[in-house]
Structures
1.
Amino acid sequence: MTPVALLVVFCALMGLIALGRLVVDAERDPVDAGTTLVVWGITALAALWTALEEGWLGTALLGVLGGLGIVLVATGGAIIAYYWRDPGRESAEGLHEDVPDDVETSRE
């Protein structure tokens, strides 16, 4: 088994774990769904690489596998980017509640 084939197996296992977390978790985060898509996209691209090295698939199937991988990675990346929560954009209400009054919390 080539190292790239081992990468496919590893990515598939990580994809199964990520998919399992999505199924079991009651509070699904869209970022987790995007991450799962990226992992499966990388798995498809690693499988494409393995198929190219071993000569397993025809040109049409190689194109489908490559296209699938690219679409999964792009879609997952877009979902991650869209739903990522930047802590700096959240409201500042309650931000410094645990800081004593004698500590300066702003730069003036």
2.
Amino acid sequence: MQKKFTIQISEPWNFTTKDNTNILTASLIRELKYTSHYNEPEAAIFKLDKPFKYEGILIKYLLAQARYEKENIRKFLEKKTFKKNFMINILSITEESIHKVTKESLINSKIFIGSLKKT
């Protein structure tokens, strides 16, 4: 069973979906480890329960990673309270390309700031 999360977008401050909310719900589908420097995952990919359009592109997936290098995403994936200050990359990818996401592929992605909690 997939873990469910609530994601709250705080920047851009005026972000809302067509439902007029900045609160999203999603399932954790993959943890990513970019380098061999860390033993723990450095990011997590979430599949949105309700995809939304942003700048004309349908968004189905988000990638969350700690905003600060010394923080670890794994410990926050177990919290049931909002943890602030995650970088949230908006991914315009397909189901087939989820396993091809790399740190380099995020260079041109839009970045939001937000928080997440396990539900």
3.
Amino acid sequence: MKKILYALVVTGGFLGCSPTQDELSPKTENSTSEKIYFEKTGFKFDDLGLDDAVVKVDEKVLTKRDICKMTEMNIALRLHKKPDIASNQLSKIRVKAYKVYPNEFVKNVLLEQYASTNGIEVGEKTLKAFKRRAFMVLRAKGDKSYDDLLKIEGIDSSLVDSRIRFEALEYEIKKKLKENEPLILDPGWADKKIKSFHDYNARVTLTNELVFARATNVWNQLKQGGEFKSLAVKYTEIPAERKDNGMWGELDNDFLKGDHALLAEIKKLKPGQFTPPVEGDNGLMIARLDGFTDDGLYILSRIFFRLPMFIEIPAKEELIESAHIEHAEKKYKDLLKILKENAIIEFPSGQKLFTKEAK
């Protein structure tokens, strides 16, 4: 049975250490085949000169040249790790980066000012840990150390170091916020939370029993000659497949290999036959083999029943630590909001955002 892991997932890494960045990719800085618009600003990025200001934060300026330089460095790091990235993926990286970097610049300037005012510094131990993390994420086969990343063609070592230092600074700020305003949990809070997880899992067990009973009932109807398509329209819980009479698609062994039990049952079928209810990663299903394509793919239909997932219950210590981390993250977001409200932030080529007058 699939479970939900109860944990706080900390993402980040302006150099591409976050999962969302992995969806992106590059394009030449002077290309005009795609018009890039900043969200909420209403101006075209391609129309700016390289030295035009994109955003100003209390008189500190980010130019188009700065954005392009950081973007191309990001791309160089990605190509170093994965040289076969498709050109269309590289284009997506640029589009995303052009939108992300101005907002990151705002955050960087404001948090660095806050840290300076409040005496928050990055310790060498913390910085070393963040460099090690960056190396583990960005390294390619053959790289031996963080310094190898700085030797990649197109890499500005000072930019890489400054980005990693800022990520470490964010960590130190969150740490200080947690120390200054600690979360006070009620006695027995963790025990009550864990009990609620057990209660939830008990309800999931009962629900799953009902789902299995429903699927078994449908399976019995099929064995008694019920029409697969009409039963799929009535019972399957995926709207798009319901509209298509339960059609799942043309699938191969690689697609199905994650659901071992399901694949084993499908391999037993002849065209027109169907499986018993089989549990997979996302639910319970009865699959029917409609035939094969010319290149050997399975043509499958299915009746799909959703199964609620169990919560993987953490240890009490992990639960308490997650609560403290979530508390610090909230304080951090609140801090950013206040800093933006009290700063002068301008997009010279578009609308002013996050100024004192902005609502």
